[in-house]
UniProtKB/TrEMBL annotation:
One CC-aspect GO term: cytoplasm
GO molecular function, one term: microtubule binding
Originating organism: Callipepla squamata
Keyword entries, A-Z: Coiled coil
Coiled coil: 4-59
Bias (Polar residues): 71-83
Endpoints of the signal sequence: none
Family matches, as InterPro entries: MTUS1/CCDC69
Region (Disordered) residue spans: 67-104
Protein name: MTUS2 protein
């Protein structure tokens, strides 16, 4: 009889531990879903930022090309006009270490 009481008490303790573990699993599942959604949103935001950066880089290159005289529709600079510096990022990078001053 004493052995039976001890086993029933162990069963009760184990059932309580089991319920606690189930609750923790449910909390972890909910948190995992939240983090997955947040990750997907952040990935989408990063992709949009990358596309915008590429678009701005293309626009910048186009404007630099026009400044260099590549645009045949724009008026040419007079040879006597003073040379003014403008800045160009090498390899499309916006890193200040790669910015060069170019004279026209």
């Amino acid at each position: 009889v004493e052995k039976k009481l001890i086993l029933e008490e162990k069963i009760t303790v184990l059932q309580q531990q089991n319920e606690e573990l189930r609750a923790r699993i449910e909390q972890n599942t909910v948190r995992t879903r939240q983090l997955s959604e947040e990750n997907a949103n952040l990935q989408e935001h990063v992709e949009k930022e990358v596309k915008e950066k590429k678009r701005l880089s293309r626009t910048n290159e186009e404007l630099l090309w026009k400044l260099m005289g590549g645009d045949t529709t724009s008026p040419k600079r007079s040879p006597s006009a003073p040379s003014t510096p403008f800045y160009r990022c090498s390899s499309g990078s916006s890193s200040p270490a790669k910015v060069k001053t170019v004279r026209r």
